[in-house]
């Protein structure tokens, strides 16, 4: 959660009220799993605000750590400069550090990690050391042939991570973020060629990790081809069922 000093008076009162409401809701650690274009970027801010969780997108965390020049950021930069993949230990270290911040005290919403069952096991080990665990894993399921249209129409607000789509979820003003009025961007890798490669890797790695969480009885599958509001309702039911 951001500092209350960043809000105007009217917005401050609304934010305080929102946080009071959050206190009546379950504190959870949630993972979002799904291919590019499955809708995670649209739903993540809604889940984050509803439960007052800390949204941790590991790709963004790595870039921020490198820019800030933190110890883990320096290690990651050296590895990436060599063209190698950043180790699981570094990524989990970033998540560990983030969880120590006040804004993450109610729980985390993980997007982009873990990607393999080995990473899932290492994440569990770190959480267990804190007497914590993953409470829900939401699989965003979409047919491959739907994804290209979704990906090529995706637009992102870089500062917040808010996601739009030129057809399915357009901003109020074309190319402009609804909240800040700042420009939206299309990521360089949001195209069919890159998507096909990423989908091959996703399918190759996803089955084992879904099985891992299915065995723990915390995996919920979301029909992400439904309307946005219907996807949101499925997520709400998946989060709250058997909790409240």
TrEMBL record:
Keywords: Kinase, Nucleotide-binding, Transferase. It comes from the Eukaryota. One of its GO terms (molecular function) is ATP binding. The keyword Lyase does not apply. The keyword NADP does not apply. Residues 154-189 form the Adenylate kinase active site lid domain. Belongs to the adenylate kinase family. This is Adenylate kinase b-like. It comes from Stylonychia lemnae (Ciliate). The gene is Contig9441.g10102.
């Amino acid at each position: 959660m951001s500092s209350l000093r960043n809000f105007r008076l009217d917005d401050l009162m609304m934010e305080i009220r929102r946080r009071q409401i959050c206190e009546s809701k379950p504190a959870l650690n949630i993972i979002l799993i799904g291919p590019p274009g499955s809708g995670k970027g649209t739903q993540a801010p809604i889940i984050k605000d509803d439960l007052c969780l800390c949204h941790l997108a590991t790709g963004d965390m790595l870039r921020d750590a490198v820019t800030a020049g933190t110890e883990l950021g320096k290690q990651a930069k050296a590895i990436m400069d060599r063209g190698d993949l950043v180790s699981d230990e570094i990524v989990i270290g970033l998540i560990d550090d983030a969880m120590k911040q006040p804004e993450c005290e109610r729980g985390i919403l993980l997007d982009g990690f873990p990607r393999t069952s080995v990473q899932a096991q290492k994440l569990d080990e770190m959480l267990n050391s804190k007497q914590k665990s993953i409470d829900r894993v939401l699989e965003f399921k979409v047919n491959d042939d739907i994804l290209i249209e979704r990906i090529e129409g995706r637009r992102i607000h870089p500062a917040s991570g808010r996601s739009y789509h030129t057809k399915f979820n357009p901003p109020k003003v074309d190319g402009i973020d609804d909240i800040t009025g700042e420009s939206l961007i299309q990521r360089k890798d949001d195209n069919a060629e890159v998507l096909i490669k990423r989908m091959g890797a996703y399918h190759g790695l996803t089955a084992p990790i879904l099985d891992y969480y299915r065995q723990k009885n915390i995996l919920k599958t979301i029909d992400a081809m439904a309307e946005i509001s219907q996807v949101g309702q499925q997520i709400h039911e998946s989060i709250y069922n058997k909790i409240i």
